Amino acid sequence: MNMATQNMAARNSVLSLKSVYKRFQQTVALHDVSLDVPSGVVFALLGENGAGKSTLIKILTGYESADYGHASVLGRDCDFESMEIRRKIGYVSDAPALYEWMTPPEIGWFTSAFYPKGFLTRYQQLLAEFNVPAETKIKNLSKGQRAKVALALAIGHDPELLILDEPTSGLDPMVRRQFLESMVDRAAVGRTVLLSSHQISEVERVADWVAILHHGQLKVVAPLEELKTEVQMVTATVDSLGSVVPVPRGEVLTEVHTGRQIRWIVKNLPDDWRDDFPPSAGATKLSAQRATLEEIFIAICDDRATRPVVEDDAALSRPLEALS
Amino acid sequence: MNVALRHLLWKDTRMIASLATAILVGTLVFQLMIWFTIWANASPSNIYYTIALWILMPNLMALGVPPMLVGSEEESGTLGWLRSLPVPWPLVVVSKSLVGVIAVGVSWVFSSLLLWMTISVWESVLPLTVESMLQSDAIRGFAFFSLELLFTGFFLAYLCRSPLRGLIILVPTIVGLFYAMQWVEAWWDSHEDPHHLWSIGRVLITIAYTAFLILMPLLPARRRLARRRSRKSAGPPPGLAERDDQPYAPSAMLGEASRPAMWRAFLWQAWRQQSRPLIGLAIVAVLLMTAFWLRTFLFGLTRPWVSSDNMPLIVSVVLVLVCTWMGCLCFYPDSISRRHFFLADRGFPKRHVWWSRIVAPALAMVLVLLLVHYLGAGFRTRPWQTITRSCCLLGFACGLLSSMWMSRSTLAFFVAPLLTLAILFASMPFLDHYSGYLSYVALAAIPLVVASWRMTGDWLKDAYRWTTQLRVSGYILLAVLVVPTTFFVVRFGGMPRELPEWRAEMMAKPMPKAFAWTSQPQSVPTIAGYLKPWLATHPLPIEVDGNLVDSPLMLRTRTLESLNLHGSNNTDALLESIQSAQRMLEWSKAARLAVLDGAVRPTEVLLYADPDERAALNTLYNRVLNLHVDAETLAMVTPAIEDALDAMASEDLREESWRMALAMEWRLYQSRRGPPKMFAGTYVDGGNYFPRLERRRADRNVDYAVHSLLSHRVDDGPPSSADFYTFGVPVDIWGTGTDTYYGRYEDRIDFYVGLGPYYKALIEQTLQCRRASDR
Lengths: 324, 775
Prior knowledge:
The complex is a heterodimer.
Chain A: H1 3-11, E1 13-24, E2 27-38, E3 42-47, H2 53-61, E4 68-73, E5 76-77, H3 82-88, E6 89-92, H4 104-112, H5 119-130, H6 143-155, E7 161-165, H7 173-188, E8 192-197, H8 200-206, E9 209-214, E10 217-223, H9 224-230, E11 231-238, E12 251-258, E13 261-267, E14 283-290, H10 293-301, H11 314-317, H12 319-323
Parallel strand pairs in A: 3-8, 3-9, 6-7, 7-8
Antiparallel strand pairs in A: 1-2, 1-4, 4-5, 9-10, 11-13, 11-14, 12-13
Chain B: H1 3-15, H2 17-40, H3 46-76, H4 78-83, H5 89-122, H6 136-159, H7 163-190, H8 197-215, H9 218-225, H10 262-299, H11 304-308, H12 311-328, H13 332-335, H14 341-345, H15 350-374, H16 382-405, H17 412-426, H18 428-431, H19 445-461, H20 466-493, H21 500-508, H22 515-518, H23 527-530, H24 532-537, H25 546-549, H26 552-565, H27 571-597, H28 603-625, H29 631-647, H30 651-671, E1 678-679, E2 682-683, H31 691-711, H32 755-774
Antiparallel strand pairs in B: 1-2
């Protein structure tokens, strides 16, 4: 992320984390996480299972407090103003536990007590849009319908920030699409959506910004387009197995060998990169194309990936930190 | 009212609706059952059931509300969702507390209304003996106990994540608090309050304690409902610890070499999820029974406060509750969040699933039964121990079924006790007439256990349709019916065979001439009345007024007093005591002669003459054996002792009179009309259920008993195969006395007539020995 983008994000941020640390006994959940999320965007928080995404969300919503560091949402301190934050945001957990004996209208009526006027009207509109049956108890709704009820409850008060923790896991493609569209709609009207997920293909379709958490550390924070422009996948076919070819210039994130083919995920690949592979280098069929978000994610998070270290390039020894 | 609070109240009220409905409907149904019982049999003891119900049901509500409002919300995850809303946590606490107080209050009002109706409707037939429990002080005490139970329950429900753990801890906590408060009350009452300051202090302390009770749950509630705060570090924590870097390495115990068989795997898994609460419940039972046993061991049963307090009842109730919850633990851990799908999805055999879940709780229940058996001396009577064990078994089965039946898993812990109560209440109409009936309630466990076995498939698939509910209801009905059915089948199936030849012989047996008029009870004098002329010439050592003389029982009581009144070291006193014994032996002999003449009722011999003879001989024996009586004194009183022994009826007279009395009483019995029918002063037909059958059964038993006795030598005691229920009070009839030590100690036929001569022989031997040693 370039400096201008970074400054802009910090200036308009709806949520901000500064050097946040969190540990559960011997397990490090978050380690020195600093983050600013600009307003009016769909911000995707990516990470493998146990990366620390849910802990980060719990700190933001005030369910947990950080061991060290500072977190704020909508300019309010998460430690001391959690009630105010909850009033302003909407939150859908990965497995929303709703009162199963209530019907959707009942749970909406119940929840309306805790939000300003207008909640119930919007909630009922949303349920109508989502086509949720009104007279069926929640325990008898399908998983997708329950998720829709949970989403409607979270956005009924038109929150400035909507936090979704793995919202589409286990949902069918139709419901998933509805979910994703509603997020884009919210961003379009200037609201912010923080989306935690490992459904990368979905994120790629809707996210404006992406952050990748790995082992409690923030590895990447960047606008999605910027990230995809900067990172490319270079493919080379070698003449024979075991041939040694030079590593492309730029920040090589991973190197994968598949038979006679080698693939590199490279950030900041120079335009003249083909010059490094003369015919004598033993590499043929050279190509470079934009990496997908999934390829970038795996390149960053796969602990078993090969990451060549180029001695004369200090940047390459710390490719992940360089991205952020 | 605050909108948020209003909505929370609505939500919380709906959350306990099923529990409240179950308890209120249960209260009504149980009360209707009591009314039916009173209608069928207006026994004064039935008022106690009404009182017990009046107290029990609101407290069951107080016990159930906290786990339903806090524990089950935590378990289902909705408390977490509630935390994500902008709801201040004190508001959540206030709402739950208010709903709890209102629910308990409504339960009290409803229960009191039914009590008032019972008293109003049945006042004329039920002598009200429980006024003390209906005084304002007592009512305030009951209400306060409910409040204590409710808020202690809330405190523990917020403190413990699992509703079950909260419940288990609540039982000993509330019992401890109850006794602590009683102790404080007793201490307070035992100290004088000269300046009337203590009464003010008492009020202040009560107010402070109430406020403490109400505010106490706030502390754990804050921890449960508010954000979890961790202490902020002064600086950034040290670098990344090793995380996810440890290679996967299972312990050797879980390796391929120790791959478990299917049974072992099931048992291991069941034990892992049941062990903690089971151990908790077992500890409660062990501690309770140990304390109960220690109390009896240290203080004995003779102390008034030990022999008359309600501790055995409390212990029984707690043990039954413990066993009920042990039963609930069979399927509860699998029912939480429908974890049983794990078993269903993999197609595990139903048999394995069912048995593996039963084993550990059943063993824990067996432990409780053993505790009752070996440490149950404090229950005072053996039947009470048997009844406690039966109820424990029934409770376990009710818990077992409820843990499968209830879709809201926590609800099982309250429905199970209600189901147990319902089956026990169904026994109520029979209790007055059949003292052994309650031991049979364990039989109701069988249909319930079968029901749970048959439901396993539906439970695994979570496929509860109305047909399932109907089947369960059918099994419960079967459980209710199986108890009286089995009881009466056993009762009537165990009737002795008819003895027509023997009966004909007995009917033809010649009776004394005067017997004809003994069959008209009103015209027959009591033995005391009959002996009045004799008493005039043989005055008793103490003054006896006319009324006492008319009552042989009082006559004997006063004579016994006289026997024991005098010291044994003083020669004159000793002589008076021996003379009193002689009088008793004389009038016993006279009574025997009168019976042979047919001049008095035969019961006079069976009920009074025999025991009096034994009491007199016993006194003489004790005097003679007393080594404090020196040789000189003994020599002086020996003639008196010998005179007394000579006054005793001869062996022939004793046996003849006893046989004649028995035959006469049998003949009189044949002419009596029931129900109820009496034999030798004791009711012998159990009650007014199936009166014709009861009468036939009683007739056969009396025939059998009299036939057995007359065929035996009298010295042998009762026949071994005696029917306990023949004479209403089990065992009493045979005069063993072991089970009635603290029970009803009534006059009964003393069939141990051989003990009289035994004592006589002993006295004569002892006298000879002492004479020989003196020489």
